[in-house]
Amino acid sequence: MMMMQMNSECINPKHSLLNVMNKFIAATNNMDETVMVPSLLRDVPLEEEDPKLNNNIICPSKQGDMYEHYLLLKSIKSDMEWGLLRREMNGGAGFLEMAVKSGEENSAEDGADLEQQFHYHLQGIFGVLSKLTVMANRCTNRYKREIGGSGCTA
Closest Cα to residue 75, out of 15, 19, 31, 20? Predict the structure, then answer.
């Protein structure tokens, strides 16, 4: 039993959910450690021309500024680390309760295809976490450029 547990803890394939989650959390931690004055990101536009990237900067929303994205990334990281119940207990929207109610309403029709639902949502979470990781790295690098820092890497 102990050997099996050690193996599962040591193995972290490149394309596993845990690896993608760890990359996002690491990128967000790096952003949080780098951005000492988050308010400097206010009014900093989301898009910036970058010849190395052929101007194809991923931007989930054309509205807002880098500060709003900074706050969004921190909020999502907190939800991942502490779970949705914490948000609900702090007067949030109650996502868990909504998911349970929705699941109860659709349980008869959904029960037959849980594996397909799982793979659909797993694929979605991979895509979202990958984009959020890129966003956290860009926020970090953009902050470094705004304050004149060096050593910006993507």
Answer: 31
